[in-house]
Specification:
The structure holds 2 protein chains of 2 kinds. In chain A, the strands form 5 sheets. A 5-stranded mixed β-sheet of chain A has the order 7-8-6-5-9, sandwiched between helices. In chain A, helix 19 crosses helix 21 (about 510-515). Chain A contains 24 helices and 18 strands. Chain A is an alpha/beta fold. Helices cover about 40% and strands about 15% of the residues of chain A. Chain A folds into 5 domains: about 1-105, 3-Layer(aba) Sandwich (Glutaredoxin); about 130-340, NADH-ubiquinone oxidoreductase 51kDa subunit (Rossmann fold, 3-Layer(aba) Sandwich); about 350-435, Ubiquitin-like (UB roll); about 440-525, de novo design (two linked rop proteins) (Up-down Bundle), CATH 1.20.1440.230; about 540-600, Alpha-Beta Plaits. Chain B is α+β, with helices and mostly antiparallel strands. Chain B folds into 2 domains: about 5-60; about 70-150, Glutaredoxin, CATH 3.40.30. In chain B, about 45% of the residues lie in helices and about 10% in strands. Chain B has a 4-stranded mixed β-sheet with strand order 2-1-3-4, with helices on one face. Classes of the chains: A alpha/beta, B alpha+beta. The interface between A and B is large, with 55 and 38 residues.
C-alpha cells in the first residue's frame, strides 16, 4: 500500500536531543486520535542541515518544512495541515535574512543552491528502515555491479569518474582501487575510515546517522572491485548514535542478503565488521588506523609500502573515508560521465562542508566543486550575523589554513585550496569575523596538534611544541620579530620532515595566518596590542559612552577595579584590572570594549 | 556489575579485539577504569604481554588506568566550541564541582576532562557526560545538568 502522506521528523543528533522522538510519538498518537487513517507515515530521519533552527518537521507530498517545532505545536499541525490540508503559517521555516516564509523546502536558498549526492538521503529517508533506502534506488548499484560488470570494469568506472578521496588528501579513489586490485594476495581488506576528528567537521557522522546503507553498499562494491571479502568500519566511540545505526543497518543488510554469502547469486561473499576508535585523532591517518584495528597503539608508519600492498594484518588493504563511499553507489547508477560533468575538471563531483563559526546558517551543505566561497558564505550560509565584517574562513581544520576576503571568488576545489595555502581537509569551514584574533586562532589549532601528536617522530613531537611556545609568548606580549622568522622556518621544516600527514600539515594554520595576517602578528609583537581585543595581556577594557550606569560591571568585578555612580558612566582602573572579562559579560548594553580604537575614549 | 570474564568470553583470543574489550569493559564499570588486576586477566586471556596492554591503554585518551567518577564529563575545547565561549562552560564546571581538568570529585560522582572535537560544532559549545552529548550549552544549562545528575544519585 502506498502512503498518502509522510511526516519526517529530523532525528539527527541535534534535533534528537530537543525531543524529536517525543515529537514523532505525539504525531502518531494525534493522527490516531483524529482517526486520519493508517496511510500516513511518521519517521525519524537523518540530519536536515540548518541545525540551529531545529527541530524540523518535513511533510510530504507538499514538501512543507516546519522549523522550531515544539510538542505543543503538534496538535495544531495535525488538525490544520494533516486533516484539512492547511499549512500552519506561523511554524513555516523562515529565511534568515528577509524573514520570508517558505512553504516548500526546495524554495530555500539553503537547499536550492546545493547539489546533494553524498547527502542525498540524509533527512529524506528513515535510516532505521532498509526499505526506504531501497525505495531510493538503494542496492541497485551493487546489483548492477555484481551481475553485469567484471571487477576490472568496476575499477575502470571509478578511474573514469575522477572521484577523489573526500577525507583530506584528495587522492584519486580509482587509482587507489587499481593499486589494491593489482596486488596479488589470498586475502584483502576494505576499510571505511569513520574516525572523523577534525574540529569543525561532522559530515561523516551525518552520513552514518542518516544514510548508513549507502556506506555499506559502497564498501561491498569496493570489495568486489579489488577482490576482498571482509570490510571494517573504524568509527569513533564518541559517535554512539552512528555506531548504533550502523549495527542495525549491518543486521538488516545481512538479513536481506546484501551482505554475507553469495550476494545477488553472484558467488561473491562480503562481510562488514565495526571497530571502535578510542580517542586518538592520529588514527584518521590510514597506517595508524590499521595499527589500531590490529589492537596496537595507533601510530603511523613509513610509506611505502602503501596499504594497497601491505596493510591490515600485512595484507593488501583499501582505505576510503565515509563521504567518499557515500558518493560511490550514485557513480555506478548514473555513470562516470554524469559524475564527471559535475564540479571542475580536476575535482569532479560535490563536496560537503560543515559550516560553522560566525555565520547565520550553521550546518551541513553540499555544493558542486568549483562553487565560490562567496556563494557558500553569503548565499547558502546567509552571511555573517550582527552586521560584522567577514575576516577569514578556516578550511581543513588543524591541517588547513585560512582564506581571506580577497579570495572569496576563487572556485573551491582541491587544487585551488592548496594554491591558497589551505586545503580541503575533511570539509570543516569555520567563518571568522573581526572579533577573532588570528594569532589566537592559529595557537588554538596548534594546541590541538600538540595534544594529538602521537610522539613517534621528532619534528612533529618537538617542533610543534616549540612553535606553540613561541605563539604563547606572542599572545602574552613577549614575542620578538625574530620569533616570526623562527615560526616560519620551523614550520617549513616540520612540513618537510614529519612522518605522516598530521605532522606534515600541522604548521599550516600558523604559516597561512602569518602569510595573510602578518600585520596582526606584528601588532602583537611591536605595538603589544591585540587588534581583535582577544589576547588578554595585550588589551584594555574600556567603558564606552553608551554606559547606562547600571553598576552591574562594578558589582561583578572581582578586584573592585570599576568605579562610578548609579546612572552615570563608569570607569575602569587599568592598574587594578586583571582583564578577566567579567564586566564585559555582565554589561547589558555592550558598553565595555576591548578594541584598540576605543582606547582613546578613556 | 558485569564481570570481565563474561565480556572476554564473547571475543576470540586475538590481539585485534584488545581495544574493543577494553572499551566495553571500561564502559560497564562504575568507575570507568581498567585496574592492574584487569590488565593481568586480559593479558592472560589474549596471550598479549601486560606491558603491551598498558601501552595501548596509555595511548588512547578514552582509556584509563585511574579510577574516575560515576559521570565522566568531557568538555569540548576545540575551535568551533571555543569561539562559542566553551571557556565559560568549563569555568562554570570548575566552579560548581570544585575540581580541575583530570580530577574527580571527593564523592566520586564526577570527573572533569577537556576533550577534542565531539563533532557537534553546529550546536557548540558541547560536552559529553558518559555516552550522552549535551549541546548549545550555557553556564545556567550546565548548572541544571549537574544538579539533575546529583539528584539522580539520591
Amino acid at each position: 500500500m502506498l502512503d498518502r502522506m509522510h511526516i519526517l521528523i529530523c532525528g539527527g543528533a541535534e534535533c534528537k536531543e530537543s525531543n524529536s522522538v517525543e515529537l514523532r510519538d505525539l504525531f502518531k498518537s494525534e493522527i490516531e486520535r483524529l482517526n486520519l487513517g493508517d496511510d500516513i507515515q511518521t519517521a525519524l530521519t537523518g540530519c536536515f542541515g540548518l541545525c540551529a533552527l531545529g527541530p524540523h518537521v518535513l511533510i510530504y507530498p507538499e514538501e512543507t518544512l516546519y522549523s522550531g517545532v515544539k510538542l505543543e505545536d503538534v496538535r495544531e499541525i495535525v488538525e490544520q495541515h494533516i486533516a484539512k490540508g492547511k499549512p500552519v503559517d506561523r511554524l513555516l521555516f523562515k529565511g534568515e535574512f528577509d524573514r520570508k516564509k517558505f512553504r516548500n523546502r526546495s524554495e530555500l536558498t539553503f537547499f536550492a543552491k546545493q547539489t546533494r549526492i553524498a547527502l542525498r538521503n540524509c533527512g529524506v529517508i528513515n535510516p532505521l528502515d532498509v526499505n526506504e533506502y531501497i525505495a531510493r534506488h538503494g542496492y541497485e548499484a551493487l546489483g548492477k555491479v555484481l551481475t553485469t560488470m567484471t571487477p576490472e570494469e568496476t575499477v575502470q568506472v571509478m578511474l573514469d569518474s575522477g572521484l577523489r578521496g573526500r577525507g583530506g588528501g584528495g587522492f584519486p579513489t580509482g587509482r587507489k582501487w587499481q593499486f589494491c586490485a593489482n596486488s596479488v594476495s589470498d586475502k584483502k581488506y576494505v576499510i571505511c575510515n569513520a574516525d572523523e576528528g577534525d574540529p569543525g567537521a561532522f559530515m561523516d557522522r551525518a552520513v552514518l546517522e542518516g544514510d548508513p546503507h549507502s556506506v555499506l553498499e559502497a564498501m561491498t562494491i569496493n570489495g568486489y572491485a579489488i577482490g576482498a571479502d571482509t570490510g571494517y568500519i573504524y568509527i569513533r566511540a564518541e559517535y554512539p548514535l552512528a555506531v548504533q545505526r550502523l549495527e542495525l543497518a549491518i543486521g538488516e543488510a545481512r538479513e536481506l542478503g546484501m551482505l554475507g554469502k553469495n550476494i545477488f547469486d553472484s558467488g561473491f561473499d562480503f562481510n562488514i565488521e565495526l571497530r571502535l576508535g578510542a580517542g586518538a585523532f592520529v588514527c584518521g591517518e590510514e597506517t595508524a588506523l590499521i595499527a589500531s584495528i590490529e589492537g596496537e597503539r595507533g601510530m603511523p608508519r613509513n610509506k611505502p609500502p602503501y596499504p594497497a600492498v601491505k596493510g591490515l594484518f600485512g595484507k593488501p588493504t583499501n582505505v576510503n573515508n565515509v563521504e567518499t563511499y557515500a558518493n560511490i553507489p550514485v557513480v555506478y547508477l548514473k555513470g562516470a560521465d554524469w559524475f564527471k560533468s559535475i564540479g571542475t575538471e580536476k575535482s569532479s563531483g560535490t563536496k560537503v562542508f560543515a559550516l560553522g563559526g560566525k555565520i547565520a546558517n550553521t550546518g551541513l551543505l553540499e555544493v558542486p566543486m568549483g562553487t565560490t566561497l562567496r556563494e557558500v558564505i553569503y548565499e547558502i550560509g546567509g552571511g555573517i550575523p550582527n552586521k560584522r565584517e567577514f575576516k577569514a574562513a578556516q578550511t581543513g581544520g588543524p591541517s588547513g589554513g585560512c582564506i581571506t576576503a580577497e579570495s572569496l571568488d576563487t572556485p573551491i576545489d582541491f587544487d585551488n585550496l592548496i594554491a591558497l595555502g589551505s586545503m580541503m581537509g575533511s570539509g570543516g569551514m569555520i567563518v571568522m569575523d573581526e572579533d577573532n584574533c588570528m594569532v589566537d586562532v592559529a595557537r588554538f589549532y596548534l594546541e590541538f596538534t600538540v595534544e594529538e601528536s602521537c610522539g613517534k617522530c621528532t619534528p612533529c613531537r618537538e617542533g610543534t611544541k616549540r612553535m606553540l611556545d613561541i605563539l604563547n609568548r606572542i599572545c602574552e606580549g613577549e614575542g620578538t620579530m625574530e620569533d616570526l622568522d623562527v615560526l616560519e622556518s620551523l614550520g617549513k621544516m616540520i612540513k618537510d620532515s614529519s612522518l605522516c600527514g598530521l605532522g606534515q600539515t600541522a604548521p599550516n594554520p600558523v604559516l597561512s595566518t602569518l602569510k595573510h595576517f602578518r600585520k596582526e602578528y606584528e601588532a602583537h609583537v611591536i605595538d603589544k596590542v591585540c587588534p581583535a581585543g582577544v589576547c588578554s595581556n595585550l588589551t584594555k577594557y574600556v567603558v564606552l559612552d553608551n554606559c547606562i550606569g547600571c553598576t552591574k560591571c562594578a558589582r561583578n568585578c572581582p578586584v573592585g577595579a570599576i568605579e562610578g555612580k548609579v546612572k552615570e558612566k563608569h570607569f575602569i582602573d587599568l592598574d587594578l584590572c586583571i582583564r578577566c572579562g567579567a564586566c564585559k559579560t555582565a554589561c547589558p548594553v555592550n558598553a565595555i570594549s576591548t578594541k584598540p580604537e576605543s582606547w582613546g575614549a578613556m | 556489575m558485569i564481570l570481565l570474564n563474561e565480556i572476554l568470553s564473547k571475543y576470540p583470543k586475538e590481539q585485534e579485539y584488545l581495544i574493543e574489550i577494553l572499551l566495553e569493559y571500561q564502559t560497564s564499570k562504575k568507575n570507568h577504569y581498567i585496574s592492574s588486576e584487569d590488565v593481568a586477566s586480559i593479558s592472560k586471556y589474549l596471550g598479549v604481554p601486560e606491558s603491551q596492554v598498558c601501552s595501548v591503554i596509555s595511548f588512547y585518551s578514552l582509556l584509563s588506568m585511574k579510577p574516575k567518577g560515576k559521570y565522566v564529563i568531557q568538555v569540548c575545547h576545540d575551535v568551533p566550541c571555543f569561539v562559542n565561549d566553551s571557556t565559560s562552560i568549563y569555568d562554570k564546571l570548575v566552579e560548581i564541582l570544585e575540581i580541575n581538568d583530570g580530577e574527580t570529585t571527593k564523592d566520586n560522582l564526577f570527573t572533569l576532562e577537556i576533550t577534542e572535537c565531539l563533532g557537534r560544532c553546529n550546536e557548540a559549545p558541547a560536552m559529553r557526560v558518559n555516552n550522552l552529548v549535551y549541546v548549545s550549552l550555557t553556564p545556567a544549562k550546565v548548572e541544571k545538568i549537574i544538579n539533575d545528575l546529583r539528584g539522580e544519585k539520591k
